[in-house]
Design goal:
This protein is mainly alpha-helical and 134 residues long. It has a domain of 65 residues. The chain is built from 6 helices and 2 strands. A two-stranded antiparallel sheet has the order 1-2.
């Protein structure tokens, strides 16, 4: 009985050490591979062949009219594009209201009234957001 207990204890110690060593190696591999390196000269391309450097991209995010441009593109993709119209259950009244708010917001943004333009565009986005999906 004592002989079986000693053999079992030795096996448990060997298996435990093996698991400990393997888990330590995996942890260091995760730490080494998770370093994030940013290259400012790296090109970021969209699917249409338009490429800019990472530095230019981050500068464009900091511009004053970024939200206006982004909101206008978002409204177009969700309410004017065929896929967006198919995805949402828009009424004709909602579509006209969204289009009017988008046009008004875009004209305000183009004239330099960015906050007012963003507010109008956000109203259009709220209509889109609260429209039922199929």
């Amino acid at each position: 009985m004592l002989k079986k207990f000693v053999i079992l204890t030795i096996l448990v110690i060997i298996v435990g050490l093996g698991v400990f060593i393997i888990s330590g190696k995996q942890e260091t591999a995760i730490i080494e591979s998770s370093a994030i390196v940013s290259d400012p000269d790296k090109k970021i391309c969209d699917g249409k062949g338009n490429c800019i450097t990472e530095l230019e991209y981050h500068k464009s995010l900091q511009t004053d009219n970024y939200k206006c441009n982004y909101y206008v593109k978002y409204i177009w993709s969700e309410s004017e594009r065929a896929y967006g119209k198919k995805q949402y259950k828009y009424t004709e009244e909602n579509l006209k209201k969204i289009q009017a708010l988008k046009d008004e917001g875009k004209s305000l943004c183009d004239s330099g009234k960015l906050k007012e333009g963003e507010t109008k565009l956000e109203e259009a986005i709220k209509i889109i957001s609260f429209t039922m999906l199929n």
